[in-house]
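Schema walk-through. Below, the input block comes first and the output block second. Nothing else is stored per chain. Lengths vary across the set, and this one has 225 residues.
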Amino acid sequence: MHQFQYQYEYPHPAVSTDIVIFTIQDEQLKVLLIRRLSEPFKDGWALPGGFVGIDEDLEQAALRELQEETGITGVYLEQLYTFGRPERDPRERVITVAYYSLVPIDRLSLGAGSDARALGWFDCEALPELAFDHQKIVSKAKQRLTAKLDYSTIALQFMPSKFTLSELQRVYEIIHGGPLDKRNFRKRIQAYDCMEDTGEVRRNGSHRPARLYTLKSPGQVEIVK
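--- output ---
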C-alpha cells in the first residue's frame, strides 16, 4: 500500500538539546565541556548535547546525549531556555532547548563517548572559546542558578550526602561571588526545613567539631519565600 507523505510548504528546523552540568571543584563553580570529534567546530570545546530523535521526548534526548557523550546518568535536569537564532548553527536551521543540572563532584563518573574526543571541567569565569552559541547558554544558566539561590534550595544539590553548614555556606559564597554573614545565613537555611542533623560531627584539626547534616529530600529543589 502506498503511504502518503505530506509535503509542507515551508521547511522545518531541526531541534537539539544542550546540557550545562555545574559542579564545585577547587573552590570554583565549574562547567563540563566536551571536545568535539567532528565538524563544525571540530576539536573545539562545547556543551554536551545533540539532535532530538523524531520519536523522542526532549528530556529523554538530553539524558541520552549526556550519557553518550560523558557517561553521566541519573541526574536531574531542569529546562533552562530555548535558543533559536537563525545563524546559531552553520549546518542548518537548528533550535536548541537547553537544560542544566547541579551535581556534586564526588557523584560523577565521567568517560568521553563516541561523539566526544575529551572531557574537561572549566571555571565558569575562564571558559575557552566555545562552539555555536554555547557561551551564551552557559551565561544564561549561571544567571538562572544565581537568581534561584534567593528563592529556592537549588544550591543544596551541590552537597555530598553529609555536609557541614560551613561547607554549605561556602557553596553559596562561590556562586554569589562574595562572603555572607554567618549568623544570617544559618538562620535563613535552617528556616527552610530541608535538611536534618545526622547526630554526627566532623573534626578539622584544632577547630571545634562541626555538626553533619543531610538532605531530607535529595534531588528535590524546593521553592521558598
